[in-house]
Design goal:
The complex is a heterodimer.
Chain A: E1 7-13, H1 25-39, E2 43-47, E3 63-65, H2 71-87, E4 107-111, H3 116-128, H4 131-135, E5 138-139, H5 144-151, H6 153-162, E6 170-173, H7 176-186, E7 191-195, E8 205-207, H8 210-223, E9 229-233, E10 239-247, E11 253-261, E12 274-276, H9 283-300, E13 305-313, E14 320-326, H10 331-340, H11 344-352, E15 379-385, E16 406-412, H12 415-425, E17 440-442, E18 445-447, H13 455-463, H14 469-478, H15 483-490, H16 494-518
Helix pairs in contact in A: 1-11, 2-3, 13-14, 14-16, 15-16
Chain B: E1 6-11, E2 16-23, E3 27-35, H1 41-46, E4 53-57, E5 61-62, E6 81-83, E7 86-87, H2 100-106, E8 110-113, H3 117-127, E9 130-135, H4 141-150, H5 160-163, E10 169-170, E11 203-209, H6 214-222, E12 225-231, H7 236-240, E13 246-249, H8 260-272, E14 276-279, H9 281-289, E15 294-310, E16 316-327, E17 336-342, E18 348-353, E19 358-361, H10 376-388
Parallel strand pairs in B: 3-4, 4-6, 5-7, 6-8, 11-12, 11-13, 13-14, 14-19
Antiparallel strand pairs in B: 1-2, 1-9, 2-8, 3-9, 10-12, 15-16, 15-17, 17-18, 18-19
Helix pairs in contact in B: 8-9
The chains are: A alpha+beta, B alpha/beta.
């Protein structure tokens, strides 16, 4: 299936400013898309409010607008660009007619899936306001209906259940009786209670037993102006996985990369240490997740391009639930691209204009097509970089809201090598997990590199997710905590903990040799 | 076994790969090959097609999720030896029953860890597969190389007779093992869900066992076939005594050209007009029975991401593969169509007869390990059988 010949110009929306929660990954994906579409011979128009990006360098697009990314501004750009296309002699009017008319490039299309959430939201606003329809501008990459199905949490959950996939069970209650009924249906604690329409979600919380549940449910119902609470089963401590999927318009689907989060559910993926590929799934479980990923992208209806699908797995019985999907190139896509060498954004742009995976050459092998699943003989570790010292008023506890300001990714032949390289790359002055002779500043206290930390400090730092937790796993192992104890405090998979124990054991071995050499 | 027992792999080219022992205290010769799957080591180890081979995994961390009673493709591991970069110090999975090392030890199979498997794989890719010798019994480097060189290799050797069942048997007549594995679902779940329900077993077929994987038998049963498994050396007339509506030819180890009895039986069966479906070695035997030739690939296809182009649908399947031999497209008669090729090296991946009800694939639609993209081939076999009435 060759590329589309009805498209003349492609409008790409960038991601705007770099903020916490959205770093330069979308500059990377947008730049890739510009290059790929120009390579295919399309005229590329770019809008981005951030001039400090690679994609806004003049050579990447045929025309670049440094303007605010709002529906109003993008509408004006559409009007101007249609004018420009007319000036260039493009038969733009065909687009308004009922049929496509004679072949030949005449369309202006909008590609919204490479500029993160900002681009997607802007495109959806233009769709809802009828702007795209008015000017005959087609959304490519993902249709508005698919974007809506992916983004509306309730509709997404219903859709998942309808295709036989499992989701976190939840229900809405208006009375204490209804609340009890839902709790019974879910059947286990902890439960999350969220009152509707309270400022910043005040009055919500996690109930670990029946008494706490009664109290939180009553308080939530009282606080909610509409006496409504959402009750949901808690996935705290479950294992978190991600799958990067690509699909083309011939319905070829491939997984680019699986990712296993080092930090269990409860920490935002952007703040988690993440590892590719998945380490603790048997082939049976991995294939079930792969099949589910394809089922999700098909059900949501993302026709071409990449999607990121998140799963949680109960470590005790393997139950797998779908958490969410991003019908666009995401932060994890950038990671998956670098981890595997598969240029997701570039390929996604080519798929959006109608190419199929088996027509696009594979950049790595150059001889084989892009319709393959990368298999790697190494491990990739991404570690988030925090800067709480610059935000003294911020709560350094890691939650479901992203707080990291950057990340370092490293590749190694083993998890241990990749982890140590990533930690060293954070530029926080450490050479890895520790053992580098440098002191540790914990709050107002200073400890020597090889000091044994107090057990209660270690326990506290392990229990609540925080930026230093990875280093406290080392401190805990050196202080004699067992893997089982650390697992119970952190719910970090025992496989990861055992790997870190090997690093610590080697540190001790080196220290012993160093001691003998010095002595 | 102590953590630091030395072990060794020697290749016929004189290279020596020292490391740490795991599994059994044992020694073995075999053809050294690599597999690129990132998951599924237990299925790989128990696949009878690996008989006579020393397998190394390109993925560095092996043993992470242990082993369990369900993820086996036959009654025991068949590899001659297993070579990994890093053996996991713990097992971490809710289904794990024991460590990989303990399980290999039970079955008398030597393991070697701490080897630069990337360097080993590169050597095999450049040179092609090599004969090797693996030992966890303190054999010297010189002796190990000598043993690797003295091994005659697997070309022309019949390994099928070592892995085929001795007697014919009915597969899972009580439907205890054939349902698809399913994960727990819903909040009340404590363990995996009951296996998926099975349709009635209403079509009798005969499956030739050249080293058949359990998941092929499960998939056949899941598609409503009542499967009579027969040993590899069963003559056609004996197979026909079971009055099969279809014939299935399984995967298996080694050189297809070393199996004249199987080629003869399959040629006879082709003449009956009964629908035939073959996988892997079964596909190669069909190629030979149709008058074609097979040849040895340089380093084979072993992994879970082999792209196959299906010319009939235009789609690309990501397939699971494990084979060292291939059918030579140029050797095939005109009444056979090559309907699938491997996109990596353009070798034959599928055949279809133009006038007879027969098709076969070089790859593994039963997966296990690997992607499920090609499961519909079992439904295609059923349609082929049903079409004939």
């Amino acid at each position: 299936m060759p590329k589309r010949t009805d498209i003349h110009s492609v409008l790409i929306i960038g991601a705007g400013p770099i903020i916490i929660g959205q770093a330069c990954e979308f500059d990377y994906s947008g730049t890739q898309a510009c290059k790929a579409l120009k390579e295919e011979g399309y005229r590329v128009v770019l809008v981005n409010s951030n001039p400090a990006t690679i994609m806004t360098d003049p050579e990447f697009a045929d025309r670049t607008y440094i303007e605010p990314i709002t529906p109003e501004v993008v509408e004006k750009i559409i009007v101007r660009e249609l004018e420009e296309m007319r000036r260039l002699g493009v038969p733009v009017e065909q687009t308004q007619g009922p049929s496509a008319g004679p072949a030949g490039p005449h369309k202006l299309v909008l590609l919204p899936t490479l500029g993160g959430q900002t681009a997607l939201n802007t495109a959806m606003a233009l769709h809802r306001q009828g702007v795209l329809e008015r000017y005959g501008v087609e959304l490519i990459g993902a249709k508005p209906e698919a974007i809506e199905r992916g983004e509306d949490r309730l509709a997404f959950k219903e859709l998942m259940l309808s295709i036989g996939l499992d989701v976190p069970i939840s229900g809405v209650a208006h009375t204490p009786e209804e609340a009890r009924g839902i709790a019974e249906k879910i059947g286990r604690f902890p439960l999350i209670i969220r009152p509707a329409y309270t400022l910043g979600g005040t009055g919500g919380g996690i109930a670990y037993n029946r008494a706490e549940f009664e109290e939180l449910a009553k308080r939530g119902l009282d606080l909610s102006p509409v006496s409504e609470i959402l009750i949901e089963e808690s996935l705290l401590g479950w294992k978190e996985f991600e799958m990067e999927v690509m699909r083309d318009r011939a319905d070829n689907c491939v997984i680019i990369c699986s990712i296993e989060n080092f930090d269990p559910m409860g920490v935002h993926t952007g703040d988690s240490i993440t590892v590719a590929p998945a380490q603790t799934l048997t082939d049976k479980e991995y294939q079930i997740m792969r099949d589910a990923s394809f089922a999700v992208i098909r059900a949501v209806g993302v026709e071409t391009g990449g999607s990121n699908i998140q799963f949680a797995v109960n470590p005790d019985n393997g139950r797998m639930v779908v958490i969410e999907m991003n019908p666009r190139v995401s932060r994890s896509s950038a990671l998956a691209s670098k981890a595997t060498g598969f240029p997701i954004a570039k390929i996604a742009a080519k798929l959006a204009v109608g190419c199929t995976l088996d027509e696009i050459p594979n950049d790595i092998t150059r001889e084989t097509p892009a319709s393959f699943e990368p298999t790697i003989d190494y491990v990739v570790v991404k570690v988030p970089r925090f800067a709480f010292e610059k935000f003294p008023q911020a709560d350094p506890t890691l939650t479901t809201q992203m707080k990291s300001v950057g990340e370092a990714m490293a590749i190694g032949r083993t998890f241990k090598e990749a982890l140590q390289k990533a930690l060293r790359s954070l530029e926080i002055g450490r050479s890895g997990l520790g053992g580098d002779g440098k002191p540790w500043r914990i709050g107002n206290e200073v400890f020597g590199d090889r000091d044994l930390f107090p057990r209660e400090l270690i326990t506290r730092k392990l229990t609540v997710p925080n930026a230093e937790r990875i280093f406290f796993i080392r401190h805990a192992l050196r202080a004699g905590f067992s893997i089982e104890e650390i697992y119970q405090l952190t719910r970090i998979d025992r496989w990861f903990l055992a790997q870190i124990r090997e690093i610590v054991e080697f540190e001790e071995e080196l220290a012993a040799v160093g001691g003998r050499a010095a002595g | 076994m102590a953590a630091s027992t030395p072990a060794i792999l020697a290749l016929e080219d004189g290279s020596v790969w020292p490391g740490t022992a795991f599994g059994a205290r044992a020694s073995a010769c075999g053809e050294v090959c690599f597999n690129t799957s990132m998951t599924g080591y237990q299925e790989i180890l128990t696949d009878p097609s690996y008989k006579g081979q020393i397998v190394t995994m390109t993925y560095p961390h092996i043993g992470n999720y242990g082993v369990n009673a369900l993820d086996v493709e036959s009654w025991r591991p068949h590899v001659a030896g297993f070579v990994v970069r890093e053996l996991s110090p713990v097992v971490s999975n809710w289904r794990a029953e024991k460590t990989l090392g303990a399980w290999l030890e039970e079955h008398g199979i030597p393991g070697l860890a701490g080897v630069d498997t990337r360097a080993l794989t590169k050597k095999l890719r450049v040179h092609g597969v090599l004969n090797g010798f693996i030992s966890t019994e303190g054999v010297s480097a010189e002796e190990a190389v000598a043993r690797a060189r003295a091994w005659p290799g697997l070309l022309g050797v019949d390994y099928v007779r070592e892995v085929t069942h001795r007697e014919a048997f009915a597969w899972d007549p009580e439907d205890r093992f054939s349902g698809s594995f399913r994960l727990a679902s819903g909040t009340g779940a404590t363990g995996p869900a009951a296996p998926a329900p099975l349709p009635p077993a209403d079509i009798p077929i005969v499956a030739y066992d050249f080293g058949i994987k359990y998941n092929i038998l499960r998939r056949l049963r899941q598609h409503g076939f009542r499967v009579q498994v027969v040993p590899a050396h069963t003559p056609a007339e004996e197979a026909l005594r079971h009055r099969p509506a279809g014939i299935f030819l399984s995967n298996g180890p080694g050189d297809p050209a070393a199996l004249p009895y199987a080629v003869r039986a399959v040629a006879d069966l082709l003449r009956t007009g009964i629908p035939i479906f073959g996988i892997c070695l079964g596909h190669q035997i069909l190629g030979l029975a149709l008058g074609g030739r097979t040849f040895k690939l340089k380093f084979g296809h072993r992994g879970a991401n082999q792209p196959v182009k299906d010319f009939e649908t235009g789609r690309v399947e990501i397939t699971s593969q494990n084979h060292g031999f291939a059918v030579d497209a140029a050797s095939l008669p005109a009444e056979v169509t090559v309907n699938r090729i491997n996109l990596n090296d353009q070798t034959v991946e599928g055949l279809r007869h133009k006038s007879r009800p027969m098709f076969c694939v070089q790859y593994h639609p039963e997966a296990s390990p690997g992607p499920h993209d090609s499961t519909p081939l079992f439904a295609e076999f059923r349609r082929l059988v049903e079409a004939r009435g």
